[in-house]
Specification:
This protein is an alpha/beta fold and 267 residues long. The structure holds D-glutamic acid.
């Protein structure tokens, strides 16, 4: 198969990475996508680095076997913990994560150089966003906050209403250190954008999904592996558990209906 016609492999611990797929489909509609959601082992955000590296390696191997020409780690936790290892282990194709593109976007959006980052416990604890932002501009002040209850709420589809309002207020009310930009450092958080906006008025929210799509476009051009076919690309999904539930909730993340994913054994 011609290199450019091969699919892009995208993976996440579950459904959240579909927000990245949505952005890729919008920017690069003729690229085909293989999406892997590790629904049996979700959440990654509370797991050890060793386990997240092990899971990420298995998934990358799977996607490469399925002919992926590039891999997007559409999970902040896996990017924080396993991206370097993946790049080292699989040198034949480009592998990108979500943290660098989101950080570049935030640093260009911020005027006062005070940037907030919210994410899972593992992402925040890893310091990966702080590191990425500081290496772009050492004068940036980074204010981080882990928000462990956001993922289960989104997974339940509870993205509006009294309960999530209270949770958002609980996490974010003490978190307004003069920041003018805030990175939604978890693939689930774009779905909470409307409610988060109410509590951080006047602050620019950076959803890394569209930044990742732009970065993917740049890499495809650099490697000359862009699909130049005019045909619309396909989306094939693989999960490690509960394919029906993925199909049902996937619609919310993707903003359109989704074919039932294939259940993958051996993970
Ligand atoms: N996909 C994860 C992330 O972006 C959130 C869900 C999880 O904890 O596995 O950090």
């Amino acid at each position: 198969m011609i290199m450019g016609n091969r699919p892009i492999g995208v993976f996440d611990s579950g459904l959240g990475g579909l927000t990245v797929v949505k952005a890729i489909k919008k920017l690069l509609p003729n690229e085909s996508i293989l999406y892997f959601g590790d629904t049996a082992r979700l959440p990654y955000g509370i797991k050890s680095k060793k386990l997240v590296i092990e899971y990420s390696n298995q998934i990358a191997k799977f996607l490469i076997k399925k002919n992926a020409k590039m891999i997007i780690v559409a999970c902040n936790t896996a990017t924080a913990m396993a991206l370097e290892e993946l790049k080292y282990n699989f040198k034949d194709i480009p592998i990108i994560g979500v943290i660098e593109p989101g950080s570049i976007q935030a640093s260009s959006d911020s005027l006062n150089k005070n940037i907030g980052v919210i994410g899972t416990v593992a992402t925040i604890k890893s310091g990966a966003y702080r590191h990425a932002l500081k290496s772009i501009d050492n004068n940036i002040n980074v204010f981080s906050k882990d928000c462990p209850l956001f993922v289960p709420f989104v997974e339940e589809g509870m993205i509006e209403g009294e309960a999530i309002n209270l949770i958002v207020e609980h996490y974010l009310s003490s978190f307004q250190n003069n920041i003018d930009t805030m990175i939604l450092g978890c693939t689930h958080y774009p779905l909470l954008e409307p409610v988060i906006k109410k509590y951080v008025k006047g602050i620019k929210l950076v959803d890394s999904a569209s930044a990742v799509a732009k970065h993917a476009d740049k890499i495809l051009n650099e490697y000359k592996i862009k699909n130049i076919n005019k045909k619309r690309g396909s989306l094939d999904c693989f999960v490690t558990d509960l394919p029906r539930q993925f199909e049902k909730l996937g619609r919310i993340f993707l903003g359109e209906s989704i074919n039932e994913p294939q259940l993958v054994d051996g993970f």
